[in-house]
Amino acid sequence: MTWSIIAHDAKAGHLGIAVSTCAFAVGARVPSIATGIGAVASQAFTNPFYGPKGIGLLRAGATAPDVVRILTEADEGRSQRQVHVMDNARRIAAYTGEGCVPWCGHLIGDGFSVAGNMLAGPAVIEETARVFEETAGQPLVLRFLAALKAGEAAGGDKRGKQSAAILIHDAEDYSLIDIRVDDHPDPLTELTRLEAVGHERYLHYRQFLPSRANPAGITDRAEIERRIAESIAAEKREHGA
Hints:
Blueprint: E1 2-9, E2 14-21, E3 31-34, E4 38-44, H1 50-59, H2 64-73, E5 81-87, E6 92-96, E7 105-108, E8 112-117, H3 123-134, H4 140-153, E9 163-169, E10 175-181, H5 187-200, H6 202-206, H7 221-238
Antiparallel strand pairs: 1-2, 1-8, 2-9, 3-4, 4-5, 5-6, 7-8, 9-10
Helix pairs in contact: 1-2, 3-4, 4-5
């Protein structure tokens, strides 16, 4: 009842998951990411332990194939599960249980994977993958949005649409982008709006939060406002605005 994409942006050093479904609050259940460790997307008849257990296994040194094997072998409900995983060496593994509602399946590409179940057909993940590859060079969040919209145009979740989410990490231990639409008649359009709102100011502000390089961050409000204005102006110059 869901399709999702895990991807790594090698140039920016970003790791992310994007997901869309006809179910409530998909962003609270499917995506799990740990900076420098890897990513897990658990869906279909979702097992909520797959995310934290998978991240724990990755943290302990398990590879993506190891994680998928360990999670599913220990789960008597595995025939109803779907999971895909990327580890910190960018290895990818995926599993689609034989009991998942058709159409269901997964696709592994160069630096990304797409998986889905209860879809209109295989074109959903094929179009998601195609557009993701075609938008190489754009920011990961924009590639995710374009890819999910292509999957939706190919039929998406065959029941309809309700929620969507994007989670992206950079080098920090907290997310760079974590936007969710929990209940909306057009969740991808709303997710696109939220991304634009976040980009207007929050992403400029985030660079002044506590970080690995500067654990205290910047707390001088006047300096923050001045540097946000400089950052916005520089971006406008870069894009010819």
